[in-house]
Amino acid sequence: MTPRAEAELSALNPLRALWLTLAAAFLLSLLLQLLPPGLLPGCAIFQDLIRYGKTKFGGPPRPAACRAFDVPKRYFSHFYIISVLWNGFLLWCLIQSLFLEAPFPSWLHGLLRILRAAQFQGGELALSTFLVLVFLWLHSVRRLFECLYVSVFSSVMIHIVQYCFGLVYYVLVGLTVLSQVPMDGRNGVVIHCNHRIPFGDWFEYVSSPNYLAELMIYISMAVTFGFHNLTWWLVVTYVFFSQALSAFLSHQFYKGKFVSYPKHRKAFLPFLF
Ligand SMILES: NC(=O)c1ccc[n+]([C@@H]2O[C@H](COP(=O)([O-])OP(=O)(O)OC[C@H]3O[C@@H](n4cnc5c(N)ncnc54)[C@H](OP(=O)(O)O)[C@@H]3O)[C@@H](O)[C@H]2O)c1
Q: Which of 155, 194, 195 to mutate to test the pocket of ligand 1 (most atoms within 8 A of CB)?
């Protein structure tokens, strides 16, 4: 690899800065939550911004002003509708470019330039990008199906800021993937909508195996990129801390709600955390 290509690989471009900032913000939030309760910042807005769904019940009392910004958590499906459409579009552009040598639309090309897409050469990276974008699209389709036909959402809420973040999140993830290409069952019976202690499989080891699985999905994409893609590792770092924070809050919620909650069960990483 030439020195120029090496410099490109380690440079801090806008996308890397974004993922690094998000990872740092979620690491800080997680560390603050790990403080003893007396030292924890009591700021209602901060707690409202890091908690969503059932974990809002585990936080401090919520002033009416906070509740004014609530959006139903079932709107999660909107994130995946956007992701299926947007990342499907990006996949279509990439397929056209890779197999028919058609250029990206000029606005998309310009956007990727602003975000400083990788400039180095390499046919394998184009294939990796294609595979990761296919995975991301399939993942979004699966998640949308899960939201529409499997998950049974109770009346829990998310903050409007979290909702807006969710709307742009998969747009950014798709652009991050594309920027790596070289240039130049809801059929069961619902018994109730209460939150119970889940048991079985990975739930025996951690409170939120779904968040752990999310991390593993992003790590598998890093493997597809060949392990040494710094930008993607920053995405993974963000996912790690955001999912660790959610898992930690869920874990606290369960421990606060159920005296019989299994003592050996960890929050996020089996046997560790
Ligand atoms: N990549 C990212 O940045 C990111 C960010 C957020 C989420 N995600 C992913 O999105 C997926 C869904 O996240 P989530 O936070 O909505 O997961 P979740 O809180 O576990 O909720 C998933 C479903 O299970 C229900 N549920 C949760 N705990 C329950 C309990 N103890 N008893 C009965 N039902 C329960 C929820 O109902 P209620 O909604 O009524 O609680 C919802 O229908 C996860 O796989 C997560 O990794 C990814």
A: 195
